[in-house]
Amino acid sequence: MALAFASPAFDQGRSGQEDLAHAVARIERLGKQLFGVSACTVYLHAVDQPGFQVDSAAHQFCAQLALTDGLQVVPEKSSPFQAALGRIENLDVKFYALQPVRSRDGQVIGRIGLIHERPRMFTEGDRHCLLDLVAVLERELHTHANTPTAPSAAK
């Protein structure tokens, strides 16, 4: 039994094997909306996909933060008097959360970062949603890693 999807965007994206850059941009948009933060970034170490660039100030901010083996939330408690943790363009960062992204063999290959200009609580529900978002990203990465590139047309 074949599944029919109501969204032509889903069918179109999958039928043309959407490139990794578009898949990551979609995940970043979803994360920003889902968590109501100023930015959601995906930073991957050593990605060799054409068109995949992480040169925004938010990506650079997340890239320079130390990455732990598990979820990192700073600050752990919300306070209206929280000092800025850094600056991204005209935004004072007062909250961030980083979750490692792993390869199939468990190696850390990147991170998803949530950045906000106000301190905020990070609930247990937020933790579960972030893990779900990471799972979606990891599935995309595994799919792209296992998808052979299209052969050149023979002349």
From TrEMBL:
Domain GAF: 29-137
Matches recorded under SUPFAM superfamilies: GAF domain-like
Pfam families, alphabetized: GAF (PF01590)
Official protein name in the record: GAF domain-containing protein
